[in-house]
Amino acid sequence: MAELPPSPAPSMPHGTHALSRAGSGSRRDQARQLITDLETRGSQALSLFISCLEDTGQNMLASLLRTSSQAARQHPEAIRPLDLKPVVLRPEGLKPESLGVGKQDPLMPTPGKLVPVVLGPKELWPAKLRPEVLRPEVPRPVDIGSGGLSDVCAQDRAKGNANLAYVLSADPCGRCLIVNNVHFRRESGLRTRTGSSVDCERLQRRFHLLHFVVEVECDLTAKQMVQALVELARRDHSALDCCVVVILSHGCQASHLQFPGAVYGTDGCPVSVERIVNIFNGTGCPSLRGKPKLFFIQACGGEQKDHGFEVASTFPEGQTPDSDPEPDATPFQEGPGTVDQPDAVSSLPTPSDILVSYSTFPGFVSWRDTKSGSWYIETLDSVFEQWAHCEDLQTLLLRVANAVSVKGIYKQIPGCFNFLRKKLFFKT
């Protein structure tokens, strides 16, 4: 409802002045005209105006308006429709001629002149005079996949807080060793891992983009694998913030206390994941104390094939019906006297700042396509490319597990053993 201007004469009540502006004629005619004007301002305008009059003690005027309103509702034909015309709003004392009224189309304002305003119901406005509501542009939240804007803020807060996230500010960030076993000795009984070179190239490029110095070792025996890992652990990592080890090989189950599984050297001899991880503990690698040590294992955890639940069969993106997935599995039998004793548990150092990501659940096979590489590495590379700039490692691995779990007819789901103390955001 528009605010009525103050009365120029002190002796005239505010409501009476408003009524006198409603038109000429008797006070009842003026009241009816005012009612009509108020009703054009909305269904509640009149009743609110009468209430204001009563609150300010102008009961007589309020009674007159209420009576006229009731009469208007009972005899609507007595109220004739108004012939609404544009009214030019101008400063007091300014003549209409100076505004160019009658000389110029009111719908085409010129600089320095005011726009005509139509008083009356919106339904009676000319189409060209209906105002457009201008709203400030509000940027829409971007879908980042994990949640929303609150998640983005939480991630940003964690990145800048050394108590919540590891600080990866060094450049290079750390060293990354990739062991890629493709060709195995005949006596090992292990098949050539066709397609593994695709995985190796993907990860070499990906970790280079994440500011790691990448080294690749191919076709190592079990002894050579251990030697390469020990050499890496003995290097000085004081100026670096992180260390990554990737093993691409055949694998199997193995006796363990903390980390399951084992990977094969090209001679057919296994190296347990637990041994690989313990090479980088506080004793073997003091310059990495308190720094994240990441292990990515693309190898089978056993021989079981997961048929999954009964769902509609679909071929994953990039995989055709004639593709040839192979398992990275092979049988493994423990020799006598190799079972760890229960009292050895207390003597092992507690793992910290360590994450081991497996391509498959322990006991099951891990699938590798002979043309496009393994499901796990292909997905890991894709997820890192899309989300590593804004999400922590744990969230990235959840994305990988979800994407791999829906591939193929035989099923596979990656998993991890996480002993990190903080969130880890890669440097991108």
Count of individual helical segments:
11
Strand content: 5-15%
Radius of gyration: 40 Å
Distance between the termini: 57 Å
The major sheet is characterized as: 6 strands, mixed
Strands, count: 14
How confident is the prediction overall: mean pLDDT?
A: 74
What fraction, in percent, of the residue positions are helical?
25-40%
Strand order of the largest sheet: 4-3-5-9-11-14
| Shape category | elongated
Listing every helix as H and every strand as E from the N terminus to the C terminus, the arrangement reads HHHHEHEHEHEHEEEEHEEEEEHHE
Secondary structural class: alpha/beta
Which stretches are low in confidence, meaning pLDDT under 50 for 5 or more residues running? Answer: 1-5, 7-23, 128-146, 305-322, 330-349
Can you tell me about this structure?
- The chain contains eleven helices and 14 strands.
- By secondary structure, it is of the alpha/beta class.
- A six-stranded mixed β-sheet has the order 4-3-5-9-11-14, with helices on both faces. A three-stranded antiparallel β-sheet has the order 6-7-8. The chain has a three-stranded antiparallel β-sheet with strand order 10-12-13.
- The longest helix is centred in the first third of the chain and has 16 residues, at 59-74.
- Residues 1-5, 7-23, 128-146, 305-322 and 330-349 have low confidence and may be disordered.
- The active site is at 250, 300.
- Belongs to the peptidase C14A family.
- Keywords: Apoptosis, Hydrolase, Protease, Thiol protease, Zymogen.
